Amino acid sequence: MTATRLWGGRQSGALNPAFEAFNRSLPFDQRLVQEDIAGSMAWARALKQAGVLNSADTKVLIEALEQLSQEVSQDPAALDASQAEDVHAFVEQALIQEVGEVGKRLHTGRSRNDQVATDMRLYVRKAGAELDQQLKNLIEALVQLAEREVDTVLPGYTHLQRAQPISAGHHALCYAEMLGRDAGRLKDALLRQDTSPLGCGALAGTAFPIDREALAKSLGFSSACANSLDAVASRDGLLELVSACSTTMLSLSRLAEDWIFFTSQEAGFLTLSDEVTTGSSLMPQKKNPDALELLRGKTARVLGAWTTLASLQKGLPLAYNKDLQEDKEALFDALDTTSACLEVASVCVGAASYNRERCLQACAEGHLDATDLADLLVAAGVTFRDAHHRIGVLVCAADEGGFELSQLPPDLTREHLPELADLDLAAELSPTRILERRCALGGTAPSRVKQEIERWKTRLKSWNN
Ligand code: ARG
């Protein structure tokens, strides 16, 4: 069936069917229907305030819009069945069908251009608040993991080479820090979406005496957009939001990658719950970290959405152009994907457990104590550069002899480290001691990590303030 044109005085005949399908956005912008209805109700009231609509007509419109809101929430399939071009046309058509002539008054002084920009801002406010809660939940799960594993000694890596032992709790809190900043970016982006485009018309503003500030407040915005062209043509705020989704996904992808390695047989540091792993269709022994791999993989989608939104706006002339209809699928996909990933990441973190023995064992091989041995020399008065050199030479000797620095034979200690002859090197170089030494702010000492856990708990308590 071909849609009848809701506004078609200028055009004659039907749309080409291929173009009609190409042009339609209802299949994907229908999720804005409640926002479009809310914006329409606010607009009807603003028209009444401006003396454009009388009380009786306004009442009819509001009641019909309220009824439509209920109908579509009870029967979302009605949207799929509609032939309307987009969600704005859907709402207007439904209104006219319901109340007749009065319905035709609602679009006075308004355009789909200010409408769609308003709907999107209302939508991201809600979706953004959900993401914020999910970020909070994931951080909470990480803080709990940190609490469980604060004393677990994990090999820390640089260049994917074992470097120094760290607390597994410290590792978990690293992701809390990253995601905390992601949440900050999300909040910032939402703040800049907190102005209302409604009443800016197609591009030049509205010719009716609308109190736009009052209208903005009635929709929960802090203020009204100050420039009509900007209000209808700008999507930088959505880009910023997807940028916040992108950095969130980058954080998740790094956690995923760390943990994919940690759960490998090569490392064996971490065990994931069976809830989030899969088997192989062929190899009976497999326990694959699909959840983590998908977190890593879906990051690409969100980065793709960012690229789409940025490219859409490059060199786009003012004001509205239909190109901007393409913002929706990218935005929605980025929001949906990030949301699903945060959910699954929380499940993964909530049920992960470190294999403490195995982690400790891994810290015993590869001279993760070399820095501390150099530091001990420094404590004995040697300059750090000289100490670094001497321990470097000793590492070569240890590798040749097939022993670890902490097991240095006494004759070699006397020869290479006379300053440390009185020390119990095995104790001084134990992973526990190595961790404990790093108790300065930001360090991995369990005592310090415990303080950080407490700081995070306080921050989480006041998260919504
Ligand atoms: N569906 C359109 C969009 O998403 C709504 C705005 C249409 N405006 C227009 N002048 N054709 O951008």
Structural description of this entry:
The protein is mainly α and 465 residues long. It folds into three domains: 17-108, Fumarase C, Chain B, domain 1 (Orthogonal Bundle), CATH 1.10.275; 114-355, Up-down Bundle (Fumarase C, Chain A, domain 2); 365-457, Fumarase/aspartase (C-terminal domain) (Ribonucleotide Reductase Protein R1, domain 1), CATH 1.10.40. 62% of the residues lie in helices and 5% in strands. It is built from 20 helices and six strands. The chain has helices at residues 17-23, 26-29, 33-49, 55-74, 77-81, 87-99, 112-148, 168-191, 212-218, 228-233, 236-263, 290-313, 327-350, 356-363, 370-379, 384-401, 410-416, 425-428, 431-437, 446-461; strands at 153-158, 161-167, 195-196, 223-224, 270-271, 353-354. It has a two-stranded antiparallel sheet. A two-stranded parallel ribbon has the order 3-4. A hairpin with a 2-residue loop joins strand 1 (153-158) and strand 2 (161-167). Helix 8 (168-191) runs antiparallel to helix 11 and helix 15 (370-379) crosses helix 16 (384-401). The chain starts with 16 loop residues before the first helix and ends with a helix. The model has no long low-confidence stretch (mean pLDDT 96). It binds arginine. Residues 25, 29, 86, 112-113, 116, 320, 322, 324-325, 328 line the site of arginine.
